Give the backbone structure.
Amino acid sequence: MQRLWLSRHFCLEPRRKPGCRLFDDFSRVIIIIVHEPTSRRSPAGDRGFFLSVHGYPFCYSENGFRFHKASGLSQMKAHRKFEYIDHTADLGFKAYGASLETLFANAAEALFEIMVSVKTIEIRQKKAVEVTAPDLDGLLVSWLNELLFLFDTEGLLCRRYDISHLQDCALQASVLGEPMDPERHEMKTGIKAATYHQLYVRQTNGSWECQVILDL
């Protein structure tokens, strides 16, 4: 077994035309475990080395690196918290979760990571949050905008989200974090609000996914 080190930005399909997806949601260095060569074919019909990238299945052959979509895509989404997407002058993200509670927590983390580096936030304060909305999509927007309201009025940066109750129209949670300290928290990007533009919350193959566009 060999160990190869690749840079953070690694294209899943190098021979694909521009626009292929990148590994921009993993750690800075990716460890790839390369198993012995095999003549077994991958789901895409490739022969060659079979790889494990952070537990996700790949094959390296004359066709380049290919992700085993049939067996690995749902696994990748189950482990990934969120990813950012560009949207004209604004910014958006997609968040993932095995449950609705996890989805809403990951969406909140994506929100604060845009503003500051979340790893610099310490847990020193606890705040109760309750929001309601006509439907699940609206509940996600209300949840994120309530967190923005707490930041705007109290300077509260959130690090952890303990959601105790979540239904289609109501959410109750405790959020934990600390007031912003300019000496320790560098403001990266200001956010005005979470919007309804291209918003969705949906369940796919047993896991949850959402998309949110932010007004900057």
In short: The helical segments are 69-79, 100-115, 136-154. The mean pLDDT is 75. The longest helix spans residues 136-154.
